[in-house]
């Protein structure tokens, strides 16, 4: 059967989007693959259609519970019943049931941590999979070395001789990240499809402030006066909650979102936003990966992101419906130092490395460091992983290198933030690509007609008792 006929049969589409056919044909030919396709360009179809054609289970390794649940629900909405998510949302009974009947599912979603559990691996070893997918594969490089080392461990499982094709999917990745993906997942001469990272419908705004007080005032005024839906990215959980409270007092439908909330709370907030019950999300970078909302009109960064890849991922959540959207980066002197502080805050120090080894020598569980509050859970995971792999001096050298790389990434983002040339050209060039054509509303330096993109927020009739914004502004600035 022709691919288009199969596409129409299962999904109701008559044509493929750019890259989909090429990736699917490579998979059907038994090749490993790396596909970089912008979010909203149908990455999931690249493994879903082969799942129907090959008639054997597809295993999808996904980084976030919310992303996993969203993908499961999307499949169920198109009538797919043989889909399951192996994650912490399952009760013990549900997990046992899913594992027992695992080979009967067509699509199996799981996390790197769950994939490495012995009982899961033993079950999968007895099954014949048609395909293994690593979704949001850039996380292997950006998270694995210093945030979730289990991303590195899954590569060991993938290195087995007899395995199905492996497909790594992401929206954006530099050549270094692609190399990390290829090496970590032990891919065999993978087929690679790289879509252009430019999103011409997103205008790239930038506003520079003399101090943070002016920045806070601008944010409050801008969001009160312009239309969403939108995402306001913050540097900390505390700031996200403070701004969210201020907007709520101003009568806006807003919620804060960060990793400090429970999984169910985060999923509830995300669903409210998707369903149009919230106009704005004020979030840390924990929000947005895989979110299925096409009509986001604005993405605003309250401060400079820690690296260009994160920035591109986050602004890429706007305008997926093809309509004009706006990404505004706010900057004032010193933002880069804040970014460097935040991005290295969860890395263990040299003294932590020595302390870990001391406990090992004393035959004391190193996890006591975590129980005693000596370092964060993230820092301990990183420390434990590398301490089991390398010598003390090698671990210290690796951590120093990670800090250096993160500082360099912040400096790369600062260059783009401060450039007087075309911001879009600089961004695309960072990923080793060339800008094919400048849109009319390109960037701050090329010129943007904001009135063509920003629409005024509809005034609502209902009255809301609120604290004057001047008082809220003072509260926002506490700590600076």
TrEMBL record:
<dbReference type="Pfam" id="PF00270">
    <property type="entry name" value="DEAD"/>
</dbReference>
<keyword id="KW-0547">Nucleotide-binding</keyword>
<dbReference type="InterPro" id="IPR001650">
    <property type="entry name" value="Helicase_C-like"/>
</dbReference>
<dbReference type="InterPro" id="IPR002464">
    <property type="entry name" value="DNA/RNA_helicase_DEAH_CS"/>
</dbReference>
<keyword id="KW-0347">Helicase</keyword>
<dbReference type="InterPro" id="IPR004589">
    <property type="entry name" value="DNA_helicase_ATP-dep_RecQ"/>
</dbReference>
<dbReference type="InterPro" id="IPR027417">
    <property type="entry name" value="P-loop_NTPase"/>
</dbReference>
<dbReference type="InterPro" id="IPR011545">
    <property type="entry name" value="DEAD/DEAH_box_helicase_dom"/>
</dbReference>
<keyword id="KW-0378">Hydrolase</keyword>
<keyword id="KW-0238">DNA-binding</keyword>
<feature type="domain" description="Helicase C-terminal">
    <location>
        <begin position="218"/>
        <end position="375"/>
    </location>
</feature>
<protein>
    <recommendedName>
        <fullName>ATP-dependent DNA helicase RecQ</fullName>
    </recommendedName>
</protein>
<keyword id="KW-0067">ATP-binding</keyword>
<dbReference type="Pfam" id="PF16124">
    <property type="entry name" value="RecQ_Zn_bind"/>
</dbReference>
<dbReference type="InterPro" id="IPR032284">
    <property type="entry name" value="RecQ_Zn-bd"/>
</dbReference>
<dbReference type="GO" id="GO:0003678">
    <property type="term" value="F:DNA helicase activity"/>
</dbReference>
<dbReference type="Pfam" id="PF00271">
    <property type="entry name" value="Helicase_C"/>
</dbReference>
<dbReference type="InterPro" id="IPR014001">
    <property type="entry name" value="Helicase_ATP-bd"/>
</dbReference>
<feature type="domain" description="Helicase ATP-binding">
    <location>
        <begin position="24"/>
        <end position="191"/>
    </location>
</feature>
<dbReference type="GO" id="GO:0016787">
    <property type="term" value="F:hydrolase activity"/>
</dbReference>
């Amino acid at each position: 059967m022709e691919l288009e006929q199969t596409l129409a049969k299962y999904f109701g589409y008559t044509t493929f989007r750019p890259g989909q056919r090429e990736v699917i044909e490579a998979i059907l030919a038994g090749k490993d693959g790396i596909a970089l396709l912008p979010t909203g360009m149908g990455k999931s179809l690249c493994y879903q259609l082969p799942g129907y054609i090959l008639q054997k289970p597809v295993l999808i390794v996904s980084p976030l519970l919310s992303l996993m649940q969203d993908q499961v629900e999307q499949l169920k909405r198109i009538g797919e019943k043989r889909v399951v998510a192996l994650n912490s949302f399952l009760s013990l009974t549900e997990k046992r049931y899913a594992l027992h009947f695992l080979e009967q599912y067509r699509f199996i979603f799981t996390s790197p941590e769950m994939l490495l559990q012995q009982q899961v691996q033993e079950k999968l070893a007895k099954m014949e999979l048609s395909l293994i997918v690593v979704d949001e594969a850039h996380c292997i490089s950006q998270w694995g070395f210093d945030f979730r080392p289990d991303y590195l461990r899954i590569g060991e499982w993938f290195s087995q001789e007899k395995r199905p094709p492996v497909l790594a999917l992401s929206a954006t990745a530099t050549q270094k990240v692609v190399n990390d993906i290829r090496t970590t997942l032990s891919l065999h001469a993978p087929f690679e499809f790289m879509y252009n990272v430019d999103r011409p419908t997103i205008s790239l705004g930038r506003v520079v402030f003399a101090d943070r007080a002016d920045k806070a005032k601008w944010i409050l005024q801008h969001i009160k006066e312009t239309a969403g839906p939108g995402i306001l990215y913050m540097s900390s959980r505390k700031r996200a909650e403070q701004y969210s409270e201020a907007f709520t007092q101003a009568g806006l439908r807003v919620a804060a979102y960060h990793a400090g909330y429970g999984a169910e709370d985060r999923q509830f907030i995300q669903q409210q936003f998707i369903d149009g019950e919230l106009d704005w999300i004020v979030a840390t970078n924990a929000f947005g990966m895989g979110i299925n909302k096409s009509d986001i009109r604005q993405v605003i960064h309250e401060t400079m992101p820690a690296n260009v890849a994160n920035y591109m991922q986050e602004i890429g959540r706007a305008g997926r419906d093809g309509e004009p959207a706006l990404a505004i980066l706010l900057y004032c002197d010193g933002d880069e130092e804040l970014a460097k502080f935040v991005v290295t805050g969860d890395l263990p120090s040299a003294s932590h490395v020595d302390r870990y080894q001391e406990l090992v020598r004393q035959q004391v569980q190193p996890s006591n460091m975590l129980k005693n509050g000596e370092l964060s859970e993230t820092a301990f995971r990183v420390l434990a992983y590398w301490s089991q792999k390398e010598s003390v001096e090698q671990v210290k050298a690796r951590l120093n290198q990670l800090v250096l790389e993160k500082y360099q990434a912040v400096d790369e983002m600062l260059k783009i933030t401060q450039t007087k040339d075309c911001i879009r050209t600089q961004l695309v060039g960072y990923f080793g690509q060339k800008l094919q054509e400048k849109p009319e509303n390109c960037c701050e330096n090329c010129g943007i007609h904001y009135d063509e993109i920003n629409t005024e927020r509809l005034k609502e009739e209902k009255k809301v008792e609120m604290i004057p914004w001047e008082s809220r502004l003072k509260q926002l600035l506490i700590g600076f």
